[in-house]
Design a protein that fits this description.
The complex is a heterotrimer of chains A (402), B (337) and C (365).
Chain A (H helix, E strand, L loop, with lengths): L1 E4 L9 E7 L6 E2 L4 E6 L4 E5 L4 E6 L6 E3 L3 E5 L22 E4 L2 E5 L28 H10 L17 H9 L12 H14 L4 E9 L1 H12 L6 H15 L5 E4 L2 E4 L5 E3 L1 E3 L2 E3 L2 E2 L7 H16 L13 E5 L18 E5 L3 E7 L2 E15 L5 H16 L9
Parallel strand pairs in A: 14-18, 18-19
Antiparallel strand pairs in A: 1-8, 2-4, 2-7, 3-6, 4-5, 6-8, 9-10, 11-21, 12-13, 14-17, 15-16, 19-21, 20-21
Helix pairs in contact in A: 1-2, 5-6, 5-7
Chain B lengths: L1 E4 H15 L3 E5 L15 H5 L4 E3 L4 H13 L3 E5 L10 H8 L2 H4 L9 E6 L14 H5 L5 E4 L3 H13 L4 E6 L6 E4 L11 E4 L4 E5 L3 H13 L5 E5 L2 E3 L3 H11 L2 E8 L4 H13 L8 E5 L17 H12 L16
Parallel strand pairs in B: 2-3, 2-4, 4-5, 5-7, 6-7, 10-11, 10-13, 13-14
Antiparallel strand pairs in B: 1-8, 6-12, 9-11
Helix pairs in contact in B: 1-7, 3-4, 8-11, 9-10
Chain C lengths: L42 H26 L13 H8 L7 E3 L5 H7 L3 H9 L8 H4 L10 H16 L5 E6 L6 H12 L4 E7 L2 E2 L2 E2 H4 L7 H5 L3 E5 L3 H16 L5 E6 L18 H8 L3 H9 L3 H23 L19 H15 L4
Parallel strand pairs in C: 1-2, 2-3, 3-7, 6-7
Antiparallel strand pairs in C: 4-5
Helix pairs in contact in C: 1-2, 1-3, 1-12, 1-13, 2-3, 2-10, 4-13, 6-7
Classes of the chains: A alpha+beta (402), B alpha/beta (337), C alpha/beta (365).
């Protein structure tokens, strides 16, 4: 059965009503013979038969509304008029439903189908031109900025193009496999500070190894009694007390003046994922042991969470760096810029030590004190260090200091 | 919000303009009883009368020249040129008079004309009914040139164009007259602004008028290959919205421009020049144009081999991404040439 | 009555009756001025003209059906204007040259345009259908009125070449508003060009009635330019032939241009997608149906049933050929979009052709 669809009959028309059929199923019709009357907006239009043939089916009743493009008549044996050659190929545009226009076939109606590319069979390869080095404007600018000569590079991009990576590698001599990490943020700031400090203040470090068993036992006893305490807090407390007797270690060099600070704003070095930070406990000398313990813990947690405020990183007068948590005994710490001293505490080790005339396994820790020799002389530093050590060896001696 | 076809959206905009300003008059061929050959002005003569909506004799030069005279008298004429290819008899009035009177009279005389032109192909028509003459007018100082692509934009832009005190060439994508979309009559935006229709990260695709839906289709098809295309509808051809264009190209570093008008001297050339100037150090590849060829608009059975389509656009996208494509053979100069 | 309007005439337009030699009922109308010009049209020759009218109407009907069936993109029907086109075209010599609008398919048929060539433009397989020099007729002008200047220029060329060929420009009532048409008349008068301006006033320019274009009969304009003008009943094939012959004779003998207004009616739509019910008064159309160009000739000739059947059969045969020619037209090759843009090689076009060819090769066929 060959179907005939309702054609466009006037602009904007998308459907039409079949008013009357002029043929019936089984009728033989001639080409262009009127098949039906259909109604447009105001007029009745006759539909001429596109074929000569026998009507096989009528798809719509009189009075029915038919959409443009929907089949209305079926021809049983439609003979198309003989052409002098085969019917022409139909272009895709002819099989598409169209909105009629005054002047042509009309605009295609949007089908709403998902858009798709036509399939390709042939993918020619890019062939670059001869001549100057291939590259893109951003890469050329980078090369210019880095002082790299593009023409001397072998491009690793498609067609031999010089890529950004090629230029950067050429500028630094990096072998493949090396990792390049940009210097940014905390690391950049810390590095600058260290350089400034290390090359400004004459650093000297003194060491003292002490038996801290009584301190570690004190910390345990306090904790068992429900009080908050830590060895580092004990060190901090000892340091604050030692500062009272050795104020030069809590001072700043200001070229023409030395400022000896009244308060102890204690910096505690913290290793964070972003790098080394030294947040400050303000007025540490006024804090009780429990308070010191809490302050140290809070400060460390805040720093590791990346929430330390810039204000908390400034104003320190002296610092402690607990390198012991990394498992080492001693070090030569670099001063926090603007400070006179930094105390590094090592790991607590069970070592055989002199004890009451004999050898016993005791908790032993090394203290490393770096100081700015402009501000502190060796004797002052030694006294400071031994003061701290004495407290750690026998916490009860604090009574003699306060 | 109502769903309207693009032609109805313009018609609704014209109705609002006629209702809100009694100096607005419509002139054109067959816009009265017939309601326009695309029915854009359907019902307007019935509603506003023969004095406000006027059928004119068959003469484009006459229509534009008369509109100039009406503007001298303080009217705000909205002229319909029936088809793009018919604008040329009126070209002299547009370029020599409409564009220059404000300048000539140091601002004393204003030409707040809106010249509506159905443009572009894809309707299977005979000669002169599928042209894209926008470049001639964008090249002419004193004229503003815009092209809408959706019912919402068509509605908002026709009202803005009529309200604008400068002459506006208002190009309407005739093959999209039947496309439907939501229209909020109170939604407005500056007439000179472009719009990022779909954001993307890999390639900027600049289009206007009838090819905006084609560009959007290309972006959908490209997403199936993992490519993210940012489609920007320029909307305003003179002036161009460089803020939006520049931001997009700086972001993606790769740009394809498409228009139906022939390549040589088309709007694409102006865009490429401006992009090269403003975004040189962001460009990872030369900007590409996908346009009609430099031939007269072909007969209906050949127009698919003239008009940019999804495949030609994506072929250019391949090129800016450095992927294998058909035109990177020996005829392509390469990036350094 | 002779109603040639000259610049000195004081006839008002209301008394300006078109020339008529055959009235709608088929009766001959005597006209002492024009009768001699068609004295050679015997019944046999009139029957041949009648066959032309029938065939042209048949082609028009077939083309309309083909458009309804999606085989043609567009067809501008000439229903009702057959006599205006046949009467004038059959007056021409082979060496005359014709410039028309898009509705003169009847003229094209008379000039010898073959059926496949007639259909090419409307099917959209080519920009135009034939070589103008093969048939002495330019391809249809879609831009309204442009062809009138072309005809005037061609006529001037004939004068320069010293031949007595004539250029004829066909256009409609709407076209007379275009600057080109008025400029053509200025130039034709100035240069005394051997051109005939043949205006088919079919009363409509799409939806605009002729009253919008002209507030007086269109024929009244030409004398203002210094061009003799005549108004003729466009549905009367004899009268049309007579006035056309007179105009051609005037041009050939150095008498310059003539303007002919053939008053007729567009019985069909502007094109096959137009809906005239929106603007045409059905009563007016009915009146014009009563002035049908074919009916009056048929009545006058009083053909025998065999003669009538023979003509109908030949018309059907032409229609069949026309349909076959249309449906068998092959679609153009894709790369032909680049052909004939220039007469001489152009690097820009060649480059685009190469690149597009490379592009197309990349797809599955």
């Amino acid at each position: 059965m060959k179907d005939f669809a309702l054609p466009d009959l006037g602009e904007g028309l998308t459907e039409s009503e079949i008013v009357e059929w002029h043929v019936a199923v089984g009728d033989r019709v001639a080409l262009n013979q009127p098949l039906a009357d259909v109604e447009t907006a105001k007029a009745i239009v006759q539909l001429p038969s596109p074929f000569e043939g026998v009507i096989g089916a009528l798809y719509a009743e009189p009075g029915a509304t038919v959409r443009v493009g929907a089949p209305i008549v079926g021809f049983e044996s439609a003979a198309e008029p003989v052409a002098d050659r085969a019917p022409a190929d139909r272009t895709p545009s002819r099989s598409v439903e169209r909105n009629p226009v005054l002047v042509g076939y009309g605009a295609p109606v949007d089908t709403g189908a998902r858009p798709q590319r036509k399939r390709r069979v042939d993918h020619p390869v890019f062939v670059p031109a001869r001549g100057a080095a291939l590259s893109t404007p951003p890469v050329r600018k980078l090369a210019h900025d880095l002082g790299v000569d593009l023409s001397e590079l072998h491009g690793s991009g498609e067609g031999g193009a010089v890529t950004r990576e090629d230029v950067v590698a050429a500028g630094s001599g990096t072998a493949s496999g090396d990792r390049r990490i940009p210097v940014r943020g905390v690391r950049k700031a810390t590095a600058a500070a260290m350089v400034s400090s290390a090359f400004t203040a004459p650093h000297v470090t003194e060491f003292l190894t002490v038996d801290v068993t009584r301190s570690t036992e004190l910390v345990s006893r306090l904790r068992d009694a429900g009080q908050r305490a830590s060895l580092l807090a004990v060190v901090a407390k000892a340091l604050c007390l030692a500062v009272r007797r050795n104020p030069t270690l809590n001072s700043r060099w200001e070229e023409t003046e030395i400022v000896e600070f009244d308060a102890v704003h204690l910096g505690i070095a913290v290793a964070t994922p972003r790098g080394l930070l030294v947040p400050v406990i303000r007025d540490a000398h006024t804090l009780a042991l429990a308070e010191l313990t809490d302050a140290i813990a809070a400060l460390a947690a805040t720093a590791r969470a990346g929430e330390t405020t810039p204000a908390a990183l400034t104003g320190g007068t002296i610092s402690i760096s607990n390198v012991g948590v990394f498992g080492v005994d001693a070090g030569t710490p670099i001063l926090n810029p603007g400070e006179a001293a930094i105390l590094a505490t090592g790991a607590v080790r069970r070592l055989p030590w002199e004890f009451e005339g004999g050898i016993a396994l005791r908790d032993v820790m090394t203290l490393s004190l770096s100081f700015d020799h402009r501000l502190v002389d060796g004797e002052q530093a030694a006294r400071f260090l031994t003061d701290i050590g004495r407290v750690l060896v026998d916490p009860a001696t604090v009574l003699a200091l306060v | 919000m109502t769903e309207l076809t693009l032609s109805k959206a313009i018609g609704t905009g014209l109705r609002r303009a006629l209702a809100e300003d009694d100096r607005v008059v419509l002139l054109g061929e067959d816009i009265g009883a017939l309601g326009g050959v695309f029915r854009v002005t359907d019902g307007l003569q019935r509603e506003f009368g023969h004095e406000r909506v006027m059928d004119t004799p068959l003469a484009e030069s006459g229509i534009i020249g008369m509109a100039v005279g009406l503007a001298f008298r303080g009217f705000r004429p909205v002229v319909e040129i029936q088809f793009d290819g018919f604008i040329y008899p009126g070209f002299d009035q547009i370029v020599a008079q409409v564009a220059k009177l404000h300048y000539r009279t140091a601002g004393a005389v204003r030409m707040p004309l809106t010249i509506r032109v159905p443009f572009g192909g894809g309707i299977g028509a005979v000669e002169h009914h599928s042209e894209s003459p926008e470049a001639y007018f964008a090249h002419t100082a004193g004229l503003r040139v815009v092209a809408c692509s959706s019912p919402q934009d068509a509605h908002s832009m026709i009202r803005q164009a009529i309200a604008c005190d400068d002459p506006v060439l208002f190009f309407e994508p005739k093959r999209r007259y039947w496309s439907k979309g939501e229209v909020d009559e109170e939604y407005a935006f500056p007439l000179g602004s472009a719009r990022v229709v779909t954001p993307g990260t890999d390639v900027t695709l600049l289009a206007y008028g009838p090819l905006v839906p084609t560009a959007l289709d290309a972006a959908v098809a490209a997403s199936d290959e993992g490519i993210s295309i940012e489609v920007v509808d320029l909307r305003s051809l003179s002036p161009l919205d460089w803020g939006t264009i520049q931001a997009s190209v700086a972001k993606t570093g790769r740009v394809v421009i498409t228009h139906e008008a022939s390549e040589f001297g088309g709007l694409g050339a102006e865009l490429v020049s401006g992009i090269t100037d403003r975004c040189f150090f962001s460009l990872e590849a030369p900007p590409q144009r996908v346009t009609g060829f430099d031939v007269p608009y072909p007969p209906a059975r050949l127009e698919e081999h003239f008009l940019p389509d999804l495949d030609r656009i994506l072929d250019a996208v391949d090129r800016v991404l450095g992927r294998a494509n058909s035109l990177s053979g020996s005829t392509h100069a390469g990036w350094s040439a | 009555m002779s109603t040639t309007v000259s610049a000195e005439s004081d006839m008002t337009s209301l008394e300006f009756e078109p020339v008529q030699l055959l009235d709608p009922s088929g009766a001959r109308v005597a006209d002492s001025h024009y009768d001699p010009l068609i004295a050679d049209i015997t019944d046999a020759r009139l029957a041949a003209l009648y066959e032309d009218l029938v065939i042209i109407r048949r082609i028009d009907t077939e083309a309309t059906a083909l458009q309804r069936q999606g085989e043609l993109g567009l067809w501008p029907p000439l229903l009702g204007q057959e006599a205006a086109q046949v009467g004038s075209a059959r007056a021409l010599r082979a060496d005359d040259f014709v410039f028309t609008s898009y509705r003169e398919n009847g003229v094209a048929y008379c000039r010898g345009v073959r059926l496949p060539d007639l259909v090419r433009t409307w099917r959209g397989t080519a920009a135009s259908g034939w070589n103008p020099y093969d048939v002495g007729m330019a391809t249809p002008a879609v831009i309204i009125g442009a062809q009138t200047l072309h005809a005037t220029g061609y006529a001037l060329g004939c004068t320069k070449d010293g031949v007595d060929s004539v250029a004829v420009a066909y256009f409609g009532d709407g076209a007379t508003s275009q600057g080109d048409v008025n400029e053509a008349m200025v130039f034709a008068a100035s240069f005394h060009a051997p051109v005939v301006f043949f205006c088919q006033n079919n009363q409509w320019a799409i939806s605009e009635p002729v009253g919008l274009q002209a507030v007086r009969p269109i024929a009244d304009r030409a004398p203002g330019f210094g061009i003799p003008s005549v108004r003729v009943d466009g549905n009367d094939v004899l009268a049309v032939m007579a006035v056309t012959r007179e105009a051609l004779d005037r041009a050939r003998s150095g008498g310059g241009p003539t303007f002919i207004e053939a008053v007729t009616y567009r019985m069909g739509p502007h094109t096959t997608s137009d809906d005239p019910s929106r603007y045409v008064d059905p009563v007016q159309r009915e009146e014009w149906a009563g002035r049908d160009p074919l009916a009056r000739v048929e009545a006058h000739l009083n053909l025998t049933p065999e003669e009538a059947a023979g003509i109908a059969a030949r018309a059907d045969e032409v229609a069949r050929e026309f349909r076959a020619a249309c449906t068998s037209l092959p679609d153009p090759e894709p790369l032909s979009v680049f052909d004939h843009v220039y007469a001489e090689p152009h690097s820009g076009v060649e480059r685009q052709r190469r690149r597009y060819a490379a592009y197309l090769r990349g797809f599955e066929s």
